[in-house]
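Quick illustration for those who missed Monday's session on complexes.
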Amino acid sequence: MHNESTGGLTVLVTGGAGFIGANFVRWALAERPEWRIVNLDKLTYAGNLENLDGIEEGARYRFVRGDIRDRQLVDRLLAEGVWGIVHFAAESHVDRSIESATEFLETNIVGTQVLIEAARKAQVARYLQVSTDEVYGSLGAEGKFSETTPLAPNSPYSASKAAADMLVRAAFHTHGFPALISRCSNNYGPYQFPEKLIPLMVTNAMSDVALPVYGDGCQVRDWLHVSDHCTALAAILERGRPGEVYNIGGSNEMKNIDIVRLILSALGKPDTLIRHVTDRLGHDRRYAIDSSKIQSELLWRPQIDFESGIRSTIQWYQENTRWWRNIKSGDYQGYYDRMYAARLEAAR
Ligand code: NAD
Ligand code: TYD
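Prediction with thymidine-5'-diphosphate bound:
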């Protein structure tokens, strides 16, 4: 819907204080001058206002601390006249979902349904569900996930994301709700919480702390720079066909162990920092994305090759030590110390 103060469109971003959400808010404020962003985030352990440093509150941007499950709050925000929703807010870490799934079901499933119902009532014009390739399960040595690959999630995290996708699909089918679903492969880049593979390994290596590689380290992920994810999401929000799913990927398959070695070599640190620890339960072996649909329909292409993307990402963590040291010295550290101590012990 039209916004009087900016003359443009209001976009509600959920989870905009997390890794991808914050990168998307930054991208949108720079690249879409006609958008006004309302950022709704609960600030869980993964939400961090420092990810949004330098962004001023004003006519084009507003931060609201709150829970996507709070229907009254969501109704109030949508009553301001929202054109589109980009729904990032989620519990996002597989290992945490294996420890305890409750928050994943609450936020990822119930939270999504609250947003759908509120958005239908407010007649929001576009709704983008930011999903993941993990809903497709695991691949063998060959093949790629396409949009028609049957869903076969293997972790509580991916099962909760798949359930949310099904609710979005049902709302489109039943009510003609103008929803789109994106399913992206693993992202990397600035502001990623250092519990995920790449920032964990970079920051541990910088601190000369052991790098915990699960199992043999030969699991494969298809890595995409977060800024390429942002341009894909904008293309889907603006030009995608409602009711459709769009896969997003970088065609950049890498084994975990090769990424870890590359990081150590870029930082001039020895391979002796690598520790093979107990594998993740139910660990998916390989993800690979066929992104030909978004490429041909929406003319999207990734712009950042992995070699330069990983180099600039490592440099970002080198130049922003205060950002990750603050996180790593915070409350969440107890969780890691416990988890990694248990994995190391079991692997002995
Ligand atoms: P993240 O964990 O870094 O950030 C999640 C954000 O959501 C945090 O700011 C958190 O405070 C907020 N949040 C959590 N629960 C909330 C609630 N109930 N109400 C309001 N806000 C809440 O996650 P991310 O890596 O930036 O991922 C964002 C989205 O993209 C997720 O939906 C994830 O499933 C999806 N995704 C991530 C990747 C990846 O590689 N990281 C790849 C594909 C898709
Ligand atoms: P992660 O960043 O958690 O993303 P996802 O599980 O959603 O793909 O993990 C990426 C890969 O790295 C995955 O195969 C698990 C592996 N991994 C490790 O080997 N060690 C670690 O400490 C972490 C966090 C992940």
